[in-house]
Specification:
Blueprint: E1 9-10, H1 21-27, H2 43-63, E2 70-73, H3 76-91, E3 94-98, H4 103-111, E4 115-117, H5 127-139, E5 144-148, H6 162-172, E6 177-181, E7 200-204, E8 215-219, H7 234-237, H8 245-283, E9 287-289, E10 300-305, H9 310-319, E11 322-323, E12 329-331, E13 334-336, H10 339-344, E14 354-358, H11 365-383
The chain binds pyridoxal-5'-phosphate.
Pyridoxal-5'-phosphate (PLP) binds at residues 75-77, 80, 102, 104, 150, 154, 181, 183-184, 204, 215.
Length: 400
């Protein structure tokens, strides 16, 4: 994929995806001549409302639910917060989630006084620990009103079986709602295999070729939540605020195409990902694949490199035109492993050198070949004693 210049390779699809051209095309009329507010009563408004309803049908079809169960929101973070805070505000009780959740879930759960559960070495919730936590909470007379478990981890790509989670939740906390943050799932997993197991499910359009600033909360029929926003009562009183019509239309088109093309895309991307990781593991010593390939989505190439600091590596990758990311955050001057790697128990010899490369529909063989060349050279350079002095303070091209 060629971006802006001929020198950028984008391997950061878990952060955001390029918009599908068909989605851009679909949204344009609603940014210009078809600007009416779909909540209006005149024919201009009604015609736009019909388009929003058609988009709802498309999204419901991709999820395997009814159109009435679809709530359009402003982003994945909002959908997660609406599910967790909305459940607690309406039903009381506390939330429970695994330690590796995206902060949209983790912070919302902790903010409501909730509990965090351990995960296994592949970042999947430990079902025994989940059952024990639910039992403990009941034993002290508290109620769990919501359990939230992500479908696909945004950092390391691991897939969690919501069917297995649901079996534990229905048994140990029968009155709790089960929410899943499925924001990272649509490109890789048929959502119809997830939806039947949960009461609530969050999506974000920009993770599957749609625009930023629009998302979905699937709320199973009969699930009553306190809305986050008070206002005009749109979305059947579940999400007030004038509809982002252009965003909703583009999102539905992106999801429709993602759904149709998923199987073929996955085959192609899996072979690119395997070539990337296999070659890097052959070329470089002391590199681990953070999660086994059969436990994660095919777009995820997450590795940890011994004797490397992610920050320095990302600097050299950026200099070489490769857009990737790390799983580390810099706290108080020291590189700390991400909350995900820490919860997985990744060896501290490897975790500082975490590298997340995430592929997508537009990734090409050339992208992978360039990435291999730049990455291997960067690691070799950083591992030579002189390279300890590589400066990460000044971005490429900036004047000092
Ligand atoms: N949940 C997961 C798993 C994500 O990866 C993200 C985005 O990084 C979000 C939630 C938040 O989505 P949004 O950017 O639409 O708020």
């Amino acid at each position: 994929m060629v971006l802006l210049t001929n020198t950028l390779t984008y391997l950061d699809h878990a952060a955001t995806t390029p918009m599908r051209p068909e989605a851009v095309e679909a949204m344009l009329p609603f940014l210009s001549e078809r600007f009416a507010n779909p909540s209006g009563s005149h024919r201009f408004a009604r015609s736009v409302r019909q388009v929003v309803d058609e988009a709802r049908d498309v999204v419901a079809d991709a999820l395997g639910c009814t159109p009435g169960e679809i709530v359009f929101t402003g982003c994945g973070t909002e959908s997660d917060n609406a599910a967790i805070a909305g459940t607690q505000q309406r039903h009381g009780g506390i939330g429970v989630c695994p330690a590796v959740e995206h902060h949209a879930v983790l912070h919302a759960t902790l903010h409501g006084g909730g509990r965090v559960v351990a995960v296994d070495s592949a970042a999947r919730v430990d079902l025994t620990a989940l059952a024990a936590t639910l039992d403990d909470i009941a034993a002290v007379g508290q109620t769990v009103s919501i359990v939230s478990v992500m479908a696909v981890n945004n950092e390391v790509g691991s897939i969690t079986s919501l069917a297995d989670v649901a079996a534990v939740v229905r048994r140990h906390a029968p009155s709790a709602l089960l929410h899943t943050d499925a924001v990272q799932a649509p490109c890789w997993i048929d959502l119809r295999t997830i939806t039947p197991h949960v009461d609530l499910l969050a999506l974000s359009a920009h993770k599957f070729g749609g625009p930023k600033g629009v998302g979905v909360l699937m709320a199973r029929q009969g699930t009553v939540l306190e809305p986050l926003l008070q206002g005009g009562g749109q979305e059947r009183d579940r999400r007030s605020g004038t509809h982002n019509v252009a965003g909703i239309v583009a999102m539905s088109e992106a999801l429709r195409l993602t759904d149709i093309e998923r199987v073929a895309d996955n085959l192609r991307i899996e072979s690119l990902r395997n070539h990337l990781v296999d070659t890097v593991l052959t070329e470089l010593d002391d590199v681990i694949e953070t999660v086994a390939r059969d436990s994660k989505v095919v777009g995820s190439a997450h590795i940890c490199i011994a004797e490397i600091e992610s920050e320095a590596l990302l600097y050299l990758l950026d200099e070489g035109g490769i857009c990737a990311s790390a799983a580390s955050a810099c706290a108080a001057g020291a590189m700390e492993p991400s909350h995900v790697l820490a919860a997985m128990g990744v060896d501290r010899r490897y975790s500082p050198g975490a590298l997340r490369m995430t592929l997508g529909t537009t990734t090409t063989e050339d992208d992978i070949d360039r990435t291999i060349d730049v990455l291997v050279a960067a690691v070799r350079r950083l591992r030579t004693p002189r390279a300890a002095h590589v400066s990460t303070a000044v971005p490429t091209g900036a004047s000092a």
